[in-house]
Amino acid sequence: MNKKMLVISAHPDDMELECGGTIAKFISKGYDAYHLILTSKYVDKASSSSLQRQNEAYEAARILGIKEVFFFEYSDSNIPLDGDIISKVDNLIDRLKPDTLISHHPFDSHQDHKVAAEIMFAVSRQGRISNVLSGSPLPYRPNIFAFKPQLFIDISGTIDLKLNAIRAYKSQFERYGGELLIERIEAMAKYYGWAIGCEYAECFEVIRMDDSLW
Fold it and tell me: Of 3, 19, 58, 62, which is least packed with CB atoms within 10 Å of its CB?
């Protein structure tokens, strides 16, 4: 039976930016990966519909090799932190039984990302998930210096999949810089790779980890 990974993100494109290379790498090593996106209603200045952003998430999942994408019905900037949403995620975890869980960092400056991190802590209680990792916030977020990575993962073999998954979000891509965004994400991966002596890497804070990760 394949190992399973569940990635929980607040919005479409969040986790492709933070850990798309790691997701693709784990899939290449035999993991079944699943992506839970907590929102499906978006109010922003981009000329895109909620349906378009969901379809972009499905395309990004196809590129990375993610097995299934789930959407909850919450609106961006309005994700609750209560028993109802935690129960919904609990039910999904009971169904999937993931070995590894990845979500946002609790000190991320975006309120939705903070809520996703708190949900990660709640649903991984009592050791029910062997490996729990918190992804790297992007450098433009003010609390980036609160992030203290302990785990670096070589993504040299999957960096192109990560970048192409980011490009799949056409409604957001040009809005956030287009190929300049790609250059910046690639540069960040090079910086983390330099830290461990490889070409490209992503990094995480470890909430819980054992030998089953690999």
Answer: 62
